[in-house]
Design goal:
By secondary structure, the protein is an alpha/beta fold. The protein has a single domain, classed as YqgF/RNase H-like domain (Nucleotidyltransferase, domain 5). The protein has four helices and five strands. Strands 3-2-1-4-5 form a five-stranded mixed β-sheet, with helices on both faces.
């Protein structure tokens, strides 16, 4: 089964996909929408989910560093409701604290320019979120 990973921002949605063995996460794209209107990209997301025949969505849950829930979590959970209303597929939350920082650091270490980093950071963050989920799941299964 393929799994889709998502990183929701205020104007972007980073998208990643797993391989069939649910071992490796690969970045796909960043979908853009009007500020706080992610419902605009549901058709694009539907195409991706159908193309990869995905059986699960993992979405980053942006908790605060002290583990409290802020406005970003409320936006994410509102988007999860949109996903649940539009797709017959389970949606799982994955703690995403520091995923964007890790994504930026990774892109900086790869010597990606600031302009290009801005376009890729959400896709890379989605890849990290999904990879963390896959690693945790494999660790649990493999004991």
């Amino acid at each position: 089964m393929r799994i889709i990973g998502l990183d929701l921002g205020t104007k972007t949605l980073g998208v990643a996909v797993s391989d069939n063995t649910e071992t490796i996460s690969t970045g796909l794209t960043t979908l853009r929408f009007e500020e706080n209107k992610p419902e605009m990209i549901i058709d694009d997301l539907k195409e991706i989910i159908n193309y990869y025949n995905a059986g699960l969505i993992v979405i980053g849950l942006p908790k605060n560093m002290n583990n409290t829930l802020g406005d970003a979590v409320l936006r994410t959970r509102a988007f999860i409701k949109i996903l649940n209303n539009n797709f017959d597929i389970d949606v799982v939350e994955q703690d995403e604290r520091l995923s964007s920082v890790s994504a930026n650091n990774l892109l900086i270490s790869a010597d990606v320019s600031r302009k290009k980093r801005k376009k890729k950071v959400d896709e890379v963050a989605a890849t990290i979120i999904l990879q963390n989920y896959l690693d945790i799941r494999k660790g649990i299964e493999n004991g």
